[in-house]
Amino acid sequence: MNRTYNKTEKLKSKKLIDKMFVEGKSVSAFPLRLVFLETDKKNGENIKTGVSVSKRNFKNAVDRNRVKRLLRETYRLHKDTYFNNITTQYAFMILYIGKEKPTLTHLETKMKSLFEKFHKSVSNN
């Protein structure tokens, strides 16, 4: 897996997003929450990922977009270490549920712990 975040990896399907929030499972490492759902799409990508930041917590679009950019960057940097050997296909939505503006280093540590919790929850099932 390379360190890019291509168009094919982005979660864009409204039906899949709605299904994920109804039927999916979640793990959290405050201020991040990961909602995931095992999919059976045969589109080539093992993981489809989307990011979201609440308008309630960040009123300014500039702040929301900054946090989303940081979330995508931390995902892009660390996805190859955690999802390189994954065989099943998943859809992810990474939610930022905190109220303070994060830093890149803080998000990196929280993203690592979030992915570790995901691996534990998947391996238990």
Q: What does the model show?
A:
It is a single chain. With 125 residues, this protein is an alpha+beta fold. It has a single domain (7-116), classed as Ribosomal Protein S5, domain 2 (2-Layer Sandwich), CATH 3.30.230. Helix content is 43%, strand content 22%. It is built from 3 helices and 4 strands. The longest helix is centred in the middle third of the chain and has 23 residues, at 61-83. The two termini are 25 Å apart.
What labels describe this entry?
alpha+beta, Ribosomal Protein S5, domain 2, 4-stranded mixed sheet, 3 helices, 4 strands, 43% helix, 22% strand
Structural class: alpha+beta
Q: Mean pLDDT, rounded to whole units?
A: 91
CATH top level label: Alpha Beta
Gyration radius, to the nearest Å?
A: 14 Å
Number of separate structural domains = 1
Secondary structure elements and their pairing?
Elements: H1 14-23, E1 25-29, E2 32-39, E3 47-53, H2 61-83, E4 89-96, H3 104-124
Parallel strand pairs: 3-4
Antiparallel strand pairs: 1-2, 2-4
Helix pairs in contact: 2-3
Compact overview of the structure:
With 125 residues, this protein is an alpha+beta fold. 43% of the residues lie in helices and 22% in strands. It has one domain (7-116): Ribosomal Protein S5, domain 2 (2-Layer Sandwich).
